[in-house]
Amino acid sequence: MTDKTRLKTELLRDILKLRRFQDSWKICEYLNDSEAWDLFGKAAINDMDIELATRIYRHVQNSGFVNALEKLKLIEERNLLAGHLANSSNRYDLAQTLFLSSSQPLEALEMRQNLLQWSEALTLAKRLAPNQIPIISREYAVQLEFTGDYTSALDNYEKGLIGDEDLSTTSLSEDDLKSHNELCKAGISRNAIRCGNTRRGIEFVSQLSHNKVLVEECATILDSMKLYSDAALLYEKSGNYERAANLYMKVKNFNKVSDLFEKVDNKEIQSQYAKAKEMEGKYREAVKAYIKAEEWLDVVRLYLDYLNNPGEAVKIVRESKSIEGAKMIAKFFQKLNDMSSAIEFLVMSKCHDEAYRLAQSTNQMDIYANILLDYADNHELSQDFLSIAIHYEQERDALRAGKFYCIAGQNKKGVKFLLQAAALSNEDQNQALHLAIESAADSKDEQIIRMIIDFLIGETDGVPKDFKYLFRLYMSLKYYREAAKTALIIAREEQNAGNYRNAHDLLFGMCQELKRQKITVPSEMVNSLMLIHSYTLIKLWIRVGDHMRSAKLLIRVANNLSRFPEHIVPILTSAVIECQRAGLKRESLEFATTLMKGEYRDQIDLKFKKKIETLVRKSGGAHLRTGDTSDADLIHTLCPYCDNEVIDTELSCHKCRNSIPFCIATGLHIIKEDLTVCPNCHFPAILSHILRLISNEPICPMCNTTIDLTQMAQLEDFQSVLDSN
Ligand SMILES: [Zn+2]
Ligand SMILES: [Zn+2]
Predict the structure, then answer these.
(1) ipTM, interface predicted TM-score of the complex
(2) Which of 220, 349, 441, 681 can pair with 327 through a Cys bridge, CB separation 3.0 to 4.6 Å?
(3) Which contacts qualify for 27-35: CB closer than 8 Å, 24 or more apart?
(4) Is there a contact between 553 and 539 (Cβ–Cβ < 8 Å)?
(5) 699 C-alpha to ligand 2 centroid (Å)
């Protein structure tokens, strides 16, 4: 401000005092300053020159003020006008005096209310409008509560309450009255508590328990005043169960905590509760709480140390996969001297070295090894398996050393030990060779395969081993041709020993496997299977009562007696009987004569001996005559390849030189017009015959599985059967 301006401003004040308003206007214009104009405006209002004041405020574009002044223009009463003008220039006490001496003293009350000056408003209301006292008191109370004057706030809330006796004087509607009184009661609750009258506060809040916000507010106040029991109660009522449980815990009201427990989803509280219960020695409740808090280690500890329930502890550890818990259980079992369980839990807690040492010192390496084997992912454990292998090697247990060297990935070393074990002990041979073959199949290592083959064929110790091992080796290496050759040798051995079922199953299985691998089945294998299968069909046809069928099969088998060395006499005896029954007299007599030769005669079953002797004696050598025809030779059916006539029991066509597949029901060669296949094994059969054979019991004579008879139909596509031969 320049000196000149200051001088002019002082001049303005002086001129205003002299009410020289025209000069004042000029000075204000000169100063062009809003404060100067405001000074001028106030002077005009003081002078109650509303006209001038309006002009001034319009000039400085204070439209709010202009509007207010426009309204006052209508007021004619001097004091009332003066009151409003004083109010608008912030001279409230003067305004109040003027209003009170005017015809509208309530303006004073309204002014104080607008100014939120509740104390003054209250004083005025007592004189001017007693029915407003409650509302003003409530407003005043809110203000006082806000500023922290709780005692006065409480006092005013109390005054605000409108009781039944005051109903006649109130101007409030029913709804407004209700919400007014509720606000007062809420205020009383809060401030009574703050002022130390908690009983009264809680009593009021109980009346308003539907107001969860208020209940929680009061709970918070009590909480901050460290009145935890009451706070907890109110938190519980407000639905804040966590805080309630927390405070109940603080005041050690555990009954309440356990009541609330189901509703609380806070691990920390659950854990605290559990600890408190444990301190009290209530272990069962503590365990429940630890479970909720998912503190598995404590659960396990309590089950083991206090509740004597290792079963539950074990269950928890298995489910929770708690490593520390497993360690705890391992220690527990060690104390009980139950070393195998201890080892198991040491493994579970990933303490493999400890488990190994314990297994070694307590001589329980097998248990340790088996537990490790149960682990799904034992690739990571190869070092552990190696330790086990070394242990067994030191113990001179070749079988186990070999097994675990293989599992640890050292196949060559492992197989060496396994073959050693197989050579040393007949008892271990099967398992050792099985493991060695498995290892060869896994590793596909040429040297390992050679080592095993040399051992099996007796190259290493001069003792050839059972062919089934060689067969198994070839099969697991998928060397099907070699497997087939071996299978033939084994089947021959089985057949020689009279184990026809084994031989049949082996050859059948091998045929199926070769077909699956799309490898042609060698004719020697087909023949062997056909012959052994014919043998198995005999008793089925006897059972059906078709003696012609059984006789023809017996003729075939009897003509290959060298393949059934264990049953020569019974086969010949049956052949004699069945051929008799079928009316094939020449064949019957031929077999009877063979039986009467010295070497077999004494072995004939006594039941039949006499009859066969009589048969041979009566014939008097008649059978030796040439040109004697037999009914058995007479039946011809067509070759499915070339339609040439071929004797039904023959399996190759002398014209087209094809070998013809045999029927699994009769052993005869198949015929195009009456053809089917087993829906399970796909071996062919003459439809009319097989239906007769299995009418009582629908089981395939080849693969031994039950057949759905509805699937047995005349085969249209006979070519597929011929092609697959
Ligand atoms: Zn032919
Ligand atoms: Zn079948």
Answers:
(1) 0.96
(2) 349
(3) 31/5, 33/5, 34/60
(4) no
(5) 8
